[in-house]
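Why do we care about 3D structure at all? Because function follows from shape, and shape follows, mostly, from sequence. That is the central idea of this module. The next example makes it concrete: a single protein chain, its amino acid sequence, and then its structure expressed as tokens.
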Amino acid sequence: MASGIKVTDEVVTAYAEVKEKHKFKYVVFKVSDNEKEIVVDRKVEESSWEDFQASFPSDEPRWSVYDFDYKNKEGQDRNKLILVKWCPDNVKIKAKMMHSSSSDALGKKCKGVPIQANDRDELNYNEVRDKILSTSQ
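And the structure:
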């Protein structure tokens, strides 16, 4: 928590709703307007990967926990939580620094395969799947 920004209970609850209850396909988090805590930006029940990719703002950082469906090396259906750290290159430097320094605090409360993305190309389905496959057994 190097930035001093706290992860709210609402964030932890939303994470559990994706991980344990599968109530949402993904949840998006952001720094609150007063810059004191990480809060839930939105919860999405159903979404394609393409819609998820397109949902990130082009000029603001976000985090998201996504219930990623894929086939393992044996062709079996699997799913894994990923934690996307979205920070486009054109984000203002203060917001970039706040996002970066707050990511560890969020990552401790919301576990998932970390995916860093600065543009939509870095959220390529096959590349994300390959990263998951390289970290899974």
